[in-house]
Amino acid sequence: MMRIQSSDASFQTVFRDLLNRGKMDMEHVSVIVKGLIDDIRSNQDEALVEHIEKFDRWSPKDGSALRIQTNDMKAAYEALEPNLKSALHLAYDRIRAYHEKQLPRSWFDTEANGTILGQKVTPVDCAGLYIPGGKAAYPSSLLMNVIPAQVAGVEHIIVCTPTPDNEPNALLLAACHLCGVSEVFKVGGASAIAAMAYGTQTIPKVDVITGPGNIFVATAKKMVFGEVNIDMIAGPSEIGILADETANARHIAIDLLSQAEHDEMASSILITTSQELANQTAIEIEIWLKQLPREVIARKSIDERAAIIVTKTMKEAVDLMNKIAPEHLEVVTVNPFELLPSIKHAGAIFLGPNTPEAIGDYVAGPNHTLPTGGTARFYSPLGVENFMKKSSIIAFSRQAINEIGEACALIANTEGLGAHEASIRCRLDK
Description:
The protein is built from 17 helices and 15 strands. The chain is an alpha/beta fold. The protein has three domains: 4-24 and 235-364, 3-Layer(aba) Sandwich (Rossmann fold), CATH 3.40.50; 27-117 and 124-230, Rossmann fold; 396-425, no CATH class. It has a six-stranded parallel sheet, sandwiched between helices. Strands 2-7-6-5-8-9 form a six-stranded mixed sheet, with helices on both faces. A three-stranded antiparallel sheet has the order 3-4-15, with no helix packed on it. Strand 5 (126-130), helix 6 and strand 6 form a beta-alpha-beta unit. The termini are far apart.
């Protein structure tokens, strides 16, 4: 049964483990990943073909065989059952509407002396999206990555996804057609990240890479950062729940399991002020587990990486959750909005008993690509700005440079940069 821990003196060891949950041992795979990246940089499509033969158990004849044809995407979309097609359209519309509100704007400000300062916001030219397709394929992740790139105005979007045994996921292909994506490649793992970062004869070099993946993907993204931008380095999925005595234990239990079923390394953490809720939730988890198709995965996650913590006050509970900084945070209390100002670190916050994390995975609208392992302390969810960059705008009038140029020249002189100083002084009125 899921462990229940009071926040007493012996609690610190348990809590330290929770804080370290996102630590990925990248060191033990870094040599392998570096080898794969170097091979792609040197041998391009030839290396891709070899990697796919080794890892995905099929043999492309050359780089052209890696591309998924748009006719296949269209056929997959047209074969969808009407209810599923409608659900995908609902998700697309809601995700797009939410991300359109994120779109940053260029701005300009004119000072009295004629100085114009501003910011120009432009999309990157090419975005590379990695969509998992190994143990499971996630069409929802395709929507969550493509749509903000489209809203940003990215003209060239490519998708890489692994296809073990050369069997693309039909629902993923349908989602590609729905989004209007035309360049989709059957490449996965670190090889896909390297191909998008450096380019091959078939896969173009991109400016930014986004999307979740396993430790090999995460390590590769970390290694190519700087050659391209990345969204974040994401680890196993996780959920934190803050709850009081008003919460429904059966609902809390299945919400915890909704993350545990993702991965044996997923983390599920309940912090509550109610001992009764803690006890009942542990019982309900055992009941739910027996009903899950992915019971083996979920049970290992619950046994090894889950916890129920009972605190004396809700303030203590919130303080602990802020230290954990979970990817997903549910707040199931008598008045969850009262706690919102004190919640500082979480990827996405789900408020109230009718807002399970799962609604955010598919149709709520906000992005489900979120920071994990405590990185919500400094990372944000994937959004439109991940596909855009800013340029500063500066335009000085003659009056303006005469007014403040002397101060600039003085600072340049102090730093010993004579050309800087001269470039200012030669423009000043004598």
